[in-house]
Amino acid sequence: MPPPQARLPWELEEEILTRLPTKFLVRFRTVCKQWNSLFNDRSFIYNHLFLPRPQFILLTKYTIYSIDITDPTMKLLERHTSRLGLSLHKANITTCDEFLFFNYHPWEEKTSLCNPWLRQVKWIKLVVDKHFDVFGLGYDNSRPEKVYKMLGYMRCPSKVQTNSYLQRVSMEVVDNVYKMLEYFRSPPEDQINCAFQTLRFIDTPDEDMPMSETAKSSHVSLNGNLYWIACNRQTREYFIQSFDFSSEIFKPVCLLPFQESSSCDEHVLAVFKGDRFSLLMQCYLTRKIEIWVTKRKIDDTEEVVWMNLMTLTATNLPKLFNKLYGVSYFVYDNTLVMCCGDDESGKPCIYIVKGDTCNKIHIGADRITWFTHCAYVPNWTSVPLEF
């Protein structure tokens, strides 16, 4: 009888697994029940979440790519998602914590959550009026379990000249279906109970809740809530606006750390280290880039304090304002990594900026005529089968 094989202490085994790339962990789920249970453990997921370097997700008409950056090289990997039935053309992608959120045109009547590393997707059917636009997805973080909700608005052509032109709507997912029974041209009731869904109209003046098309494609998700950059129409102050899905209210979070900024300057908000904000600001005249981060994690109990993380003055920095397909970025190891269109051709490029140097890498897909992108941290959190 062969002698029993020596086994590593479980703590050491867990530490080793924490440091492995996500693509290997997906395969290792089937090794044993203990490993599979570990990969579903929340603390293990968070420990691993902070170790991987963020990547970019690039979405084209027909393909999803992940872009792994190791200065000065780039690894472009096609994510095989054909079996998932994802409609890629003209979708907008943002993140909802560990997942990608696919937001389509209103007439598509659907959205979806996806984890491309696990090749999992969850479709959310929208039975709504053609004038309904989805703004973003979040969840009620006051409950023990995640209850996903959607924020959107209805365009009411008969009220273009009034403050009710955009009717804000909060909807809670029930049986995986968002449903609205009719299109309201008159002031809606406070609450409409539908067959599958509860719809709540949020009576908020437009000036208290700026929801622009830019914010729709550039908001960030943190702890179930949505955040985006807005500008006060009266004071012209820039601030971070939020929507709290637990209380279903809009509320300002904090002012941006610079108020003398020109309206032509570019501002991009991102999540930093999983629980804080980072803010990119590029001066329109000089192209100088400043990266600001919040000193503490974002919650309702602490005042937001900004600190300057880096100022970048390389002479060949790209022009970030008015990019057709937007700008996404992350900060890792004192390096700014950006994804956006080339200044001249508009083709997708990666820019790696550190100190006074800026390296540009062409993604090299000349056939790409349309794309969207976002920064994303690889993980193996399973997409919920039921909400």
UniProtKB/TrEMBL annotation:
CDD domains per the UniProt record, alphabetical:
F-box_AtFBW1-like (cd22157)
Q: Specify the species.
A: Brassica oleracea var. oleracea
Its name, as the record gives it, is F-box domain-containing protein
Q: Where is the F-box domain?
A: 2-49
Tell me the first and last residues of the signal peptide. Answer: none
- InterPro entries xrefs: A_thaliana_F-box (IPR050233), F-box-assoc_dom_typ1 (IPR006527), F-box-assoc_interact_dom (IPR017451), F-box-like_dom_sf (IPR036047), F-box_dom (IPR001810)
